[in-house]
Amino acid sequence: xxxxxxxxxxxxxxxxxxxxxxxxxxxxxxxxxxxxxxxxxxxxxxxxxxxxxxxxxxxxxxxxxxxxxxxxxxxxxxxxxxxxxxxxxxxxxxxxxxxxxxxxxxxxxxxxxxxxxxxxxxxxxxxxxxxxxxxxxxxxxxxxxxxxxxxxxxxxxxxxxxx
Length: 163
Fold this sequence. Notes:
The chain is of the alpha/beta class. It has one domain (9-159): Cytidine Deaminase, domain 2 (3-Layer(aba) Sandwich), CATH 3.40.140. The protein is 18% helix and 29% strand. A hairpin with a 2-residue loop joins strand 4 and strand 5. It is globular and about 60 Å long. GO terms for molecular function: metal ion binding; metallopeptidase activity.
């Protein structure tokens, strides 16, 4: 059994795609690279079973230049919800290179965005490097709380109050 109830990728959140397009444009003329976090569709208010690519995870220590982007696997966020990868091709070519294909087996979906980084300048691929259709979904990823306590909790702890 996989991490998600259904390993089917239903689409990518509009906000995640917008982030990746903007980050790719900002990195130009170098490549941009990130991981894609998946979220259960039901957590996003969708009635379907499956996963939505909801967020782009930035990998610390990523090295880029105009023809490649790489990171050490040890720097990959320890995030079990990683469901794909995304990177840019500053030359605008929306086809995976041999190097791209060699990394595709690690996740469900891989997206390449190309210059000039507009709404139509991207393509999704499956594990085998074959193009796939990936709908852009208008969903809001759930807000994550970095801390699971409030100032009131801290004050109660300092006073020695019991819950």
